[in-house]
Design goal:
By secondary structure, this protein is an alpha+beta fold. It folds into two domains: about 120 residues, no CATH class; about 240 residues, Thrombin, subunit H (Beta Barrel). About 35% of the residues lie in helices and about 30% in strands. The strands form three sheets. Strands 12-13-14-17-16-15 form a six-stranded antiparallel β-barrel. Strands 6-7-10-9-8-18 form a six-stranded antiparallel barrel. Strands 1-2-3 form a three-stranded antiparallel sheet. Helix 2 packs across helix 3 and helix 3 packs across helix 5. The longest helix is centred in the first third of the chain and has 38 residues.
Length: about 400
């Protein structure tokens, strides 16, 4: 294998094919854990292999369709061109093609005439339908498998259904709304967390928090203790990493101050201390923890595993390292393992931001300097908390 700092695509291919020896595989896996850029390259390579496999299956389907046609109709090699002495005119050929501008060029098989155009069109349609059916079946199977993995593994999203705290509990419509979402005209409100990524009102949260929401609000406690509430909208989401970008679109909103924290795409080392801020209740809560694994549920390379007590409402919360850098985004926990949570790596969040900037030809006012890296955790939190908002998503 090539040296660690210059691992080639061939080495990555050998890794997936199981052709690396024990020492090479160990060095390879260590580099995946410690080098976020290389880990992303390996994941991209893996996706390419999957795409090529699907494309290969598609071509095999086309080959099977050709073979079936060969057996049933004799195939092109067995089709005979109608000889001039047979009573077949140019007009017959043009009528068969249905095209007055076409040139006479037909074949005969078992007493029936088949135009080249019609023949190939039929094959193309049949092959395309077969490919679509197969790929559609694969997609449905993958979605079902993804859902079953989450259900059977004990994974739980960390959104909290609003209980009506601080509201009129005698409101019958309100009570019904939290009981049965299927009743026409009624809906539920879910609570989670979001954090600012730019001072002009851009935030990151989880896709499962805001997906299919009818309305979206972001809230934070003001200096005098009351809640400041703003209307927001979803800008971009990613179902694979479970991330979403939202923006405040309220006329009462003024720009936030300069964000005191920054974002880190570097891989976090196992055992590193981290903490999160979020809304598992109607007030912001800090929860300390440790990064216990560099992969998420069932080896998910887009996420970290955390030794941290997380609860409903923590979804979308930022994970900070000791320097006050955002290194991940909370997304769920494991019901069967007390104190086990999962968070999406920050490099995927940064990719989502770059994707939005490129698509909309804008540059967000992201923080450039970390103002809290040398402060104690208590001081860090006092600066950070005003940029972590409560999310209310009505669905």
């Amino acid at each position: 294998m090539s040296k660690d700092n210059n691992i080639s695509s061939l080495d990555i291919e050998k890794f997936f094919d199981g052709e690396l020896n024990k020492n090479e595989r160990t060095r390879f896996e260590e580099k995946v854990e410690t080098d976020a850029w290389f880990a992303r390259k390996v994941r991209d390579h893996h996706q390419i292999r999957k795409d090529l496999t699907i494309q290969g299956n598609r071509y095999r389907i086309i080959d099977v369709m050709d073979e079936i046609h060969l057996k049933e109709f004799g195939g092109i090699p067995y089709l005979k061109v109608k000889s001039p002495e047979e009573n077949f005119t140019e007009k017959d050929s043009l009528d068969l093609l249905g095209d007055k501008n076409a040139k006479p060029n037909s074949f005969q098989s078992t007493g029936k005439f088949v135009s080249v155009k019609i023949f190939y069109t039929g094959i193309a349609i049949a092959a395309s339908l077969a490919a679509l059916i197969t790929l559609g079946s694969v997609w449905v199977a993958k979605q079902k498998e993804h859902q079953e993995v989450h259900v059977n593994s004990g994974y739980q999203d960390l959104v909290m259904e609003e209980s009506g705290e601080g509201k009129d509990t005698n409101n019958k419509a309100r009570k019904l709304r939290t009981i049965d979402k299927s009743i026409p005209g009624l809906s539920k409100t879910y609570v989670a967390t979001a954090f600012a990524i730019a001072k002009n009102g851009y935030f990151i949260t989880n896709n499962h928090v805001v997906q299919d929401c009818k309305s979206l609000k972001l809230k934070v406690k003001g200096n005098v203790g009351g809640w400041l509430e703003y209307d927001a909208k979803v800008l971009l989401n990613d179902t694979l990493t479970d991330l979403a970008m939202v923006q405040i679109v309220d006329s009462n909103f003024m720009e936030l101050g300069i964000l005191p924290f920054t974002f880190s795409s570097k891989s976090v080392m196992m055992g590193q201390d981290v903490y999160t801020l979020g809304y598992p209740k109607k007030d912001i809560v800090m929860e300390p923890g440790t990064l216990s694994s560099t992969t998420g549920l069932m080896g998910d390379t887009t996420a970290y595993q955390l030794a941290m007590s997380l609860n409903s409402g923590n979804s979308g919360g930022p994970i900070f390292n000791t320097k006050g850098e955002v290194v991940a985004v909370v997304k769920g926990k494991h019901n069967g393992k007390e104190g086990t949570g999962y968070a999406v790596r920050a490099d995927y969040m940064l990719e989502l931001i770059q994707q939005y900037e490129a698509a909309n030809d804008v540059v967000l006012k992201k923080p450039k300097y970390n103002q809290i890296q040398y402060k104690s955790r208590v001081k860090q939190i006092s600066h950070i908390r005003q940029f972590v908002f409560l999310v209310e998503a009505e669905k």
